[in-house]
Design goal:
4 copies of one chain form a homotetramer.
Chain A (H helix, E strand, L loop, with lengths): L3 H14 L4 H12 L12 H8 L2 H19 L5 H9 L6 H10 L3 H14 L3 H8 L10 H27 L1
C-alpha cells in the first residue's frame, strides 16, 4: 500500500463494499451542475472524481469515515454512548459534516455550497444511504456526508475547469 | 461606537440601507427550519438573529461586505479589474462566500450546510438581492452571502436550542 | 446521559482517563495569552474551558477523537491500514486536525491561529502527549489536537471577553 | 486580463507594489519547513509559490485584500468606522484571517496550522509588514495575513510532495 494509485483503488473498493459506486457519485455531481450545463452525463465527471480521490487527505477522510460507520454498525465501539449517537444519526452530531468539509475545503467555496445543497436535498445515492441508515441494521452516518463531499468537490472542480476554458476562449 | 449594542444597531441600519430587514432574514431562517418544525413564524427567529448580530466577528463581516459592495457600486474601487469582477458577480470569485463562512463557522456544521442550501436555492430576500444585482446599477455580490449566512446561523442556533430542550424534556 | 452537564462531565472523565486534566488545558490556554496579559494564572481559564466543554459539538468531537485513539491503541480497528497510519501518527493524515478545527471554528479566527501555533510549538501537555504517543504503546494522534483546540478556543474566548470589557471601560 | 498567467502576474505586481517579493514569501515558507528538512533554500519554494498563485481563488483573495488595505490607507473608505478598525489593525477584526483561511484551506490541514504558527510568530516579511502597519501611514491589516497564507500553503504543498516522494521510494 505504498503509493497513491493503491490508496485510491483501496478507497474505491471500500466505497463499493459500503454500497457506493463511482457512477453513483458521478450522478450526484452531475445533478449539482445540471442548472449550469444542460445535457451533461454522469460519465463526464469520472475524471474529476478520480482526481479528488487521488488526494491523500481525501483518502484518509474516507477511510476514517467508513471505520467509524462499521464500528457502530458492528456494535464494537468502546464508547457505547457514541455508538448510540452514530446509530441514531443524531441531528446535532456534526463530526461527520466536519470531516466532509475537510474534503470540500480543498476545492474552494463552490464545493462547500454544493455540499450544503446536496446534503439537505438528499439526491440519489445520498437519499438511498440515508434511508438504509434508518433500518436499524446499517450505519451510514459518516458515509452519506463523505459521498456528498466527493460529489460536491468533483462538481466544483468541473465548474472551475469549464469556466476557465470558457474564459480563455474569449 | 464603544459597545456591542451600538455596533449591532449600526449593522442593522447598514443592512436596511442596502434593502434588507430583520424580517427578511428571519423569513429565510424560518424557510430553512420549515421541514423540521411545522407552522413556524418568522418572528420566532428574531431572538436568534439578534444573538448572531451581537457577535463582533459577525458585525465586522457585515461592515466589510457592505463596504466592498458599495465601492463596486459607486465605481470607486482602486483596482478596476476587481471592481469589474464584483459588478459581474463572477461565478469563480469565492471571497464573498469565504467571508460568509466566517459567520457560519461560529454556529457549527448545521449552519454551514444551511448556508450552502439557501445560497443555491436562493429563497426570498436572497433571490431579490440576486436579481437586483444584475440590473447594472446595484452590486450585492457580498450582501446576498452575508444575509444567507446570518439566516443559516440563526436557523442553526434555533435548531440547537430546540433539540436541546426536547432532549431535556425526556 | 440526558443533559449538557452530564455530557460535559463525561468528557472531562474521558480526558482524565487519557491523561489530560482541566489544569493541563488551562495551562496551555494561559501560555497562548501570556504575551498579551502578564501574570495570568491557569486557574483564570477554568471558566472559559468549562464554557467550551459545554458545547455539544465540542463534546462529540472529544468522544470521537478518543474512540479512534483507543481503537488504534487496542489494535481493534477493522481497517488495519488506517490503524497503522494512526499508530505512526503519519504527518499527512490530517483528519485529526480537521476534527480539531471543528472546535476552533466555533470560537472564531483568533482560536484558529492559536491552534496552529500551539500545535507546532507543542507546549506542556501537548508535548507530553506527543512523546507518549511515540512509545509504541499509546496512541494520541487525535487527542493532542483536541487538547490544543480546547486550549486555543478557551484562549480565544478569554481574549474576546478581555478586549470587550476593556473597550467598554473607555 | 483573460487568462491565468496574466492574473498571476498581476498579483505578483500588486504584491511587489505593496512591498512584498516572491523571495520574501519563499523565505517565510522555508522557515516553516526548516525543522523538517535541513539546509533548504528559499529558492526551492519558488515552484510551490507559483503554483499557489495560479489558483483563481488565491488571486481573488489577494486582489480583495490589497484593495481593502489601500482604501483604508488612502482614507477613501465609505464606512469611516471600518476604516478606523483597519487602520488600527484591531485584534478582534478577524475578517483578514478568514480571508487568509480561504487560501490555506485549499492546501489542507498542514497549511492551516502553518498559517497559525507564522501569524503568531511573525517571521521575516510578516514582522516587517506588521511594524510598518503601525507607523500611522501604511495599512497592512489584510496583507500580512495573505502573505502568511501563501507561505503556509506553499510550505504545505512542499511537505506533501516531499512526503509522497519519500513514501514512493520505499
Amino acid at each position: 500500500m505504498k503509493n497513491i494509485e493503491n490508496y485510491r483503488d483501496r478507497c474505491i473498493a471500500l466505497l463499493e463494499d459500503r454500497g457506493v459506486t463511482i457512477y453513483d457519485i458521478a450522478d450526484a455531481a452531475r445533478f449539482l451542475q445540471a442548472d449550469y450545463h444542460k445535457g451533461l452525463k454522469a460519465e463526464e465527471f469520472f475524471e474529476s472524481i478520480m482526481s479528488v480521490l487521488d488526494k491523500r487527505e481525501v483518502q484518509f477522510a474516507i477511510m476514517t469515515a467508513i471505520e467509524l460507520d462499521r464500528q457502530a454498525e458492528n456494535g464494537t465501539m468502546i464508547d457505547k454512548e457514541l455508538e448510540d449517537v452514530l446509530r441514531r444519526d443524531e441531528g446535532l452530531y456534526g463530526v461527520d459534516e466536519v470531516n466532509a468539509y475537510g474534503i470540500c475545503n480543498l476545492y474552494g467555496s463552490i464545493s462547500l455550497t454544493n455540499f450544503g445543497f446536496i446534503d439537505k436535498k438528499k439526491y440519489g445515492i445520498i437519499a438511498k444511504l440515508n434511508e438504509e441508515g434508518k433500518d436499524g441494521v446499517h450505519c451510514h452516518t459518516f458515509l452519506d456526508d463523505i459521498v456528498g463531499a466527493i460529489a460536491a468537490s468533483a462538481a466544483g472542480r468541473f465548474a472551475h475547469s469549464r469556466l476557465r476554458s470558457k474564459r480563455e476562449e474569449v
